Amino acid sequence: MNKGVEDVEPKQLKKLPKATAKRLPLYLRNLKVLDSNNVTRIKSREFAEITQVPSATIRRDFSYLGELGRSGYGYEVPFLIEVFSELLETDEKKRIALVGVGNLGKALLNNNFRRNENLKITCVFDNNPELIGTYYEGYYVHGMDELKEIVQTENITVAITTVPSHSSQEAVDLIVAGGITAILNFAPDRVVVPANVSMRYIDLTTELLTLIFFDNEYHYRPSPFLTGI
Which of 91, 117, 200, 227 is most deeply packed, by most CB within 10 A? Predict the structure, then answer.
């Protein structure tokens, strides 16, 4: 019988390697694509072709979460979706600070995590005098000098920064000084943060080039799992 996330000891989840944790959203995204194409079962070798993650790595990642599949049979797609969704979804509402109200920041505000009601940008910051004190889509733009007081008053522990690379370290320093411990950075250059701060980087250029590479590499043999065949 498959083992669900409710059967995994909390201590075991805390020991989940960071590299594995980073791959969980990738797995879930591709599993949902498979599910939408009526694929109900998949083997690690087949899933490896889709995700571009080695099958041995997939099996090892899945093993941290219990007995999710059976040798020779593979994995039930709906069951994996349930397990990974429970792991990645949060029942706790997270109030998020956005730093940087340029084009990307505005796009994030327009979207504001509509698919997850527990994630919401609630305060916005910038260092541009022309933006400070104005409103965008109903959001008041605060100056960076107000960040520490506001995030502590509002009990905000998550921030997204969309400032350019040359200003990224300065912005992150102010975010950390405010007590925020989880930061999503859209600037590709690495910054220095204390050990207790979790940083994730999103480099859109690198992601796009990687996508194009794999598309060029594999377009001549489309996966039947993505076509519903």
Answer: 200
